[in-house]
Amino acid sequence: MNSVRTAWKAYEGEGLLARLHVVVRALTCPFQPLMDRFPTTGALLDVGCGHGLLINLLARDPSRRALKIYGTDHDPAKIESARRTASPGVVFSTVDLGLFPESVFDAVSIVDVLYTVRKDAWSAILQGCSRALRPGGRLIVKEVVDRPRWKHWAIMAQEALSVRVFGITRGDRPHFEPPEGYRQAIVAAGFSVIEERPLPTATWISHYLFVAQKS
Ligand SMILES: C[S@@+](CC[C@H](N)C(=O)[O-])C[C@H]1O[C@@H](n2cnc3c(N)ncnc32)[C@H](O)[C@@H]1O
Predict the structure, then answer these.
(1) Do residues 52 and 43 touch, judged by C-beta distance below 8 A?
(2) Ligand 1 pocket, 69 CB below 6 A?
(3) pLDDT > 90: what percent of the chain?
C-alpha cells in the first residue's frame, strides 16, 4: 500500500493545508514498519493520533479489516478532521487516555507524541497506555531521537516552525531524547521492551521504534 497516495485520497475533503500536512507526514514518517508491528485482530488505540493518519492507513489495509480501531487526541480540530476522513467502524475522540476502560486493548500506539510533552508528564501517559492494555498487550512507540546532531538541529528547526509559527502541533516545547531516555521511561511504566531499532529514513529525521509488552 502506498501511504502517500492513501493519505492524499483519504483527506480529499479536507482543506489544502490539512491535506498537505498528512501527505508530508506520509512522506517523512515510516508508517509501513509501524503498521507491520500491529496485530491483525483485536482492539487497538492510537494515543495522540492527530489527524488520524496512522489509523486511516491501518483501517484501509485489507489484512486488518478485523481490527476494532480507536484514536484519541486532545486537539478537537484534529479529531474533527480525523472523524470526517474515518472508515466505518473507526472511533476518533478527545476522550482522555485515563478515561478509557481498563485492560481492553490488544495494542496501543503512541507516535511522535512524547517529544511534544514535558518529560515529567511521560510517566502518566505511559502508565495510561499500560492501564488501557490487556496483560501481554503490545505498546508501539515511535519517536525521534537526538542523534546524529546535525539531524537533531534540523528537526528542532522544523518543530519550531510547526509548533510556534504555524501552531500545527499543540504541546510543550519540543524536545528529542536519546534512545535510552525513551527506553527507561517505557520500562519504568511496567513494560518489557521486546524490540527497539532505528527506522531507516532518507530524510533529516532520526526515527526510532520501540515495541514493548505489558507484563
Ligand atoms: C506530532 S503530532 C503526531 C500526531 C500523530 N500521532 C502522527 O503520527 O501523525 C503529536 C500529537 O500528540 C497530541 N498530544 C500531545 N499530548 C497529548 C495528550 N496528553 N493527550 C492526547 N494527545 C496529545 C497533539 O495534539 C498532536 O496531535
Answers:
(1) no
(2) no
(3) 81
Domain 3-214 has what CATH class? alpha beta
170 alpha carbon – ligand 1 mean position (Å): 8
**Which residue has a Cα nearest atom 10 of ligand 1?**
113
Position 167 pLDDT exceeds 70: no
In Å, what is the CA distance from 148 to each residue of 155, 174, 198, 200? 11, 17, 12, 13
**What SS3 state is found at 211?**
strand
Strand partners, 68: 43
Each residue's pLDDT tens digit, 58-86: 999 999 999 999 999 999 999 999 999 99
Residue 96 alpha carbon, nearest atom of ligand 1: 20
pLDDT of the residue at 154: 81
For CA atoms 73, 188, 38, 102, give the dihedral sign: negative
How far, CA to CA in Å, does 124 sit from each of 97, 114, 151, 180, 210?
10, 11, 29, 18, 18
* Residue 34 beta carbon below 6 angstroms from any ligand 1 atom: no
Instruction: Kindly report, residue by residue over 134-156, the tens digit of the pLDDT.
Output: 999 999 999 999 988 888 888 88
Instruction: Decide if 27 contacts 21 (C-beta within 8 A).
Output: no
Contact 57, 35 (CB under 8 A): yes
| All structural domains of the chain with their residue ranges | 3-214
Our mutation pick for probing the ligand 1 site, out of 32, 74, 208, counting the most ligand atoms within 8 A of Cβ, is 74
Lookup result for grid cell 495494542: 107
